[in-house]
Amino acid sequence: MARVAREMVEKAGINVNQLVELLVKNAAAELTTYYYYTILRCNLIGLEGEGVKEIAEAARIEDRNHFEALVPRIYELGGKLPEDMKIFHDISACPPAKLPKDPTDIKAMLIVLVEAERCAVRGYTHICNMTAGKDHRTYDLSQAILNEEIEHESWFSEFLGEGPSGHFMRRGETSPFVSKFLR
Amino acid sequence: MKEFTEEELAQYDGKNGNLAYVSYKGKVYNVTGSFLWKEGTHQVFHRAGVDLTDALEQAPHGGEVLDKFPVVGILQDIHMPDMPSKP
């Protein structure tokens, strides 16, 4: 634990236990999403599915990166991950991104994907609002994750015909915003 | 449709097997069974059994997220606006 760092956050007026609980729930959402996206990606096949597979894979890897980036902050603030992974799954901040009943229905797959990203966008916006000007490190981390979650949302939204994302696919490395926390 | 007082609503806190109800803009919703309302708690800060109208103003989503839950009643309006007394 980073005792003084935690004290600074407490002194700024944040309930650190609540913040840590929120970070653990979001870490659970990232790791479970990584798992469920693995299944979705495997089922993104055929003429329609193959077109979505690459962005689903980028989002999957970046969500795992988000989990990796969140864990050190949880422990710095005096928190920890549950020892039982079943409990970890069930406390996720977002519902499981499960394979739709008809896995050949690519639109249904995209709705699962975009809803998962929208849940994450809401969650990190909330953490950013809560920590802005008070917990600089958690804010910086949450904002970096938020940037990537917004991009994920816009990719899937574009495929659903809701409008253009306005940017290109990743080129080369994943996690352009979060990678600084992974080095 | 059933009319709830705040005290009655508070009994539906989602804990120890209780149903989880929340109210928003006068309607009472049953959120029992929602993944995001386990044990009557939502995203660490929010509890079932209360009116969430004010809390939702600060939330990163609107009241439309409640549309998928069944409405089980209405909340009694106990907050009377300050009315000037007539002469």
Secondary-structure map with pairings?
The complex is a heterodimer of chains A (183) and B (87).
Chain A: H1 3-11, H2 16-43, H3 46-76, H4 85-90, H5 106-131, H6 136-159
Helix pairs in contact in A: 2-3, 2-5, 3-6, 5-6
Chain B: E1 2-4, H1 6-10, E2 21-24, E3 27-30, E4 41-42, E5 46-47, H2 53-58, E6 71-75
Parallel strand pairs in B: 1-6
Antiparallel strand pairs in B: 2-3, 3-6, 4-5
What do these coordinates show?
The complex is a heterodimer of chains A (183) and B (87). By secondary structure, chain A is mainly alpha-helical. Chain A has a single domain (3-181), classed as Ferritin, core subunit, four-helix bundle (Ferritin). Chain A has 6 helices and no strands. By secondary structure, chain B is of the alpha+beta class. Chain B has a single domain (2-75), classed as Cytochrome b5-like heme/steroid binding domain (Flavocytochrome B2, Chain A, domain 1), CATH 3.10.120. Chain B has helices spanning 6-10, 53-58, and strands at 2-4, 21-24, 27-30, 41-42, 46-47, 71-75. In chain B, the strands form 2 sheets. In chain B, strands 1-6-3-2 form a 4-stranded mixed β-sheet. A two-stranded antiparallel ribbon of chain B has the order 4-5. Classes of the chains: A mainly alpha (183), B alpha+beta (87). Chain A binds chain B through residues 18, 21-22, 25, 90-96, 121-123, 125-126, 129, and chain B through 35-36, 38, 43-45, 59-61.
CATH class of chain B: Alpha Beta
For this structure, the CATH topology of chain A is Ferritin
- Count of helical regions of chain B: 2
The coarse overall form of chain A would be globular
Strand content of chain B: 15-25%
State the name of the first-level CATH class of chain A: Mainly Alpha
Structural class of chain B: alpha+beta
List segments of chain A where confidence is low: pLDDT < 50 over at least 5 consecutive residues.
Answer: none
Q: Treating each run of at least 4 consecutive H or I residues as one helix, how many helices of chain A? A: 6
Cα Rg of chain B: 14 Å
Order of neighbouring strands in the sheet with most strands of chain B: 1-6-3-2
Please state the CA-atom Rg of chain A, rounded to the nearest Å.
17 Å
Low-pLDDT residue spans of chain B: none
Q: How big a fraction of the residues of chain A is strand?
A: under 5%
Corresponding CATH superfamily of chain B: Cytochrome b5-like heme/steroid binding domain
Order of helices and strands of chain A: HHHHHH
